[in-house]
């Protein structure tokens, strides 16, 4: 039986302004979308990481097929989350086919692991997002929202998108909730009574159920 390659989370040298990509992405639409804008270096044996933005920051890319196939992606996320020196950002393909599986990975990534999750609709959107993330890596750590703390913090836009995934929550209600509960942790711990003044009883019950019912 063929063995899976061992997980590698040791230091990887990433030249300034480059991205070190897992060899499996060579020739893909995702990496083609980045060519000419950032420099890519392909390497074998980067499992479980898909892309290194720097020696301390990486991307784990969860495809539509990964979500539909089940929960096997979770081990990769846990390995990186438990690494003492790596800060992982999770990019997830949220499509019409995979949308039903999105709440589960959102809850696992954001609430259980405390990692940044950024949904994308296509490889081309993901390419543009990764180019922006590489540009963030050139900033001083104190100015980079993804590196400011020991674990990556959720950007304001990502946080807003995350809250909008809760049934019954649109952009306006999401902003109102975040004014009252400025983090996912605070929102998930809020009682129905605390939520009611902001969004009403019915939506408050939906929010409470979203965070408390097993998925």
Furnish the topology, listing elements before pairings.
Blueprint (H helix, E strand, L loop, with lengths): L17 E5 L6 H4 L6 E5 L7 E4 L2 E6 L1 H6 L3 H9 L5 E7 L8 H11 L3 E5 L2 H15 L18 H9 L6 H10 L3 H6 L2 H8 L1 H12 L3
Parallel strand pairs: 1-2, 4-5, 5-6
Antiparallel strand pairs: 1-3, 3-4
Helix pairs in contact: 6-7, 9-10
Short descriptors:
215 residues, alpha/beta, 6-stranded mixed sheet, 10 helices, elongated
Shape: elongated
Order of helices and strands: EHEEEHHEHEHHHHHH
Q: Termini distance?
A: 33 Å
Please work out how many helical segments DSSP would assign: 10
Give the DSSP E fraction (strand runs of 2 or more residues): 5-15%
Question: What about the largest sheet?
Answer: 6 strands, mixed
* Class from helix and strand fractions: alpha/beta
Which stretches are poorly predicted, pLDDT < 50 over at least 5 residues? 1-6, 141-154
Overall residue-averaged pLDDT value: 80
- As a percent range, the share of helical residues equals 40-55%
Calculate Rg over CA atoms: 18 Å
Give a count of the beta strands, DSSP E runs of length 2 or more.
Answer: 6
Q: Report strand order across the widest sheet.
A: 2-1-3-4-5-6
């Amino acid at each position: 039986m063929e063995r899976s390659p061992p997980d590698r989370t040791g230091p990887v040298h990433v030249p300034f302004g480059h991205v070190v990509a897992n060899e499996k992405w060579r020739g893909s639409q995702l990496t083609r979308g980045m060519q000419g804008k950032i420099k890519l270096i392909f390497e074998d044996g980067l499992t479980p990481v898909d892309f290194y933005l720097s020696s301390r920051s990486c991307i784990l890319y969860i495809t539509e097929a990964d979500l539909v196939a089940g929960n096997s992606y979770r081990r990769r996320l846990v390995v990186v989350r438990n690494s003492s020196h790596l800060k992982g950002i999770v990019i997830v393909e949220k499509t019409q086919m995979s949308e039903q599986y999105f709440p589960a990975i959102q809850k696992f990534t954001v609430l259980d692991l405390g990692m940044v999750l950024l949904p994308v609709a296509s490889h081309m959107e993901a390419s543009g997002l990764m180019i922006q993330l590489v540009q963030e890596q050139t900033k001083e750590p104190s100015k980079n929202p993804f590196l400011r703390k020991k674990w990556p913090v959720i950007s304001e836009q990502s946080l807003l998108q995350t809250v909008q995934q809760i049934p019954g929550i649109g952009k306006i209600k999401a902003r109102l909730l975040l004014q009252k509960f400025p983090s996912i942790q605070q929102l998930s711990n809020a009682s129905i009574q605390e939520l009611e003044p902001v969004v009403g009883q019915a939506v408050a019950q939906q929010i409470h159920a979203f965070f408390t019912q097993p998925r």
